[in-house]
Amino acid sequence: MAKTEANKPKVKKSKKPAEPKTVAEAKTLEKVPEYWQLTDDEVLLRSPEPEDDYKTSDSWRVFRIMGEFVGGFDDLATITRGVSIFGSARTDENSPMYAAARETAKLLASAGFEIITGGGPGIMEAANRGAFEAGKVSVGCNIELPFEQSPNPYQTRSLSFKYFFVRKTMFIKYSNAYIIFPGGFGTLDELFEALTLIQTKKIRNFPVVLFGSQYWRGLLAWLTSTMLNEKNINGEDLGLIHLTDSPAEAVKFIVKIHDAADDPTDAGFKGPRRRKIK
Fold this sequence. Notes:
Blueprint: H1 23-29, H2 40-45, H3 58-76, E1 82-86, H4 96-110, E2 114-117, H5 123-133, E3 138-143, E4 157-161, H6 164-173, E5 177-180, H7 185-199, E6 208-211, H8 213-229, E7 241-244, H9 247-262
Parallel strand pairs: 1-2, 1-5, 2-3, 3-4, 5-6, 6-7
């Protein structure tokens, strides 16, 4: 007898618990399977409990992390003139910033640079699109998220990472510069990690371009007044930051730093272009 809509078995849908308001609630919710989306990052970063099954598997997870590093290194080994472009995944295709990122990437690609992005929508898509339209290398380094981030279609080389810290290492290792378009927490994370590595001399001759003077003006004012006046940074820590609203100027600045680093006779030369992360 064929099943009708009335006698079809009903599938009970699990409802994700509400976000916790206190630390105690968060600890309780950690034990509810539906609360965790169980991406590899989430599992790795959970604090172990006395009876936590994950605790015993953390050391073995190192092999997966190692495999992800090896895969990334192999896939990106030929990228020697990479420039990473960051910005909001929420930027609309009709936005002036989308158009600017697309144009900037196209100019950089035409100048012989490989374009690297997070592989998603918004500014990332715009940058990959510019490089793709120039017929050059367009790399996307996607990340596994609890909510799906679909890779944009303008990539000539697409990678997928489970761990944020592995992905961030690839951005730094295979880039000669960063261009930071308006974005949110993730964009700021990449910006300040690069600035920290520059400040601590882990990377050298690494220009950072902030695109969009109106968007970044407040942050720069705070960095150059409050943070600098409190002597928490030195003036030279901000020396390789360049603020612009022009794709052509952004590219010109990166080419200038890149060429100077390749020329040991240049007065601004401070070491080899290929940087080492210690």
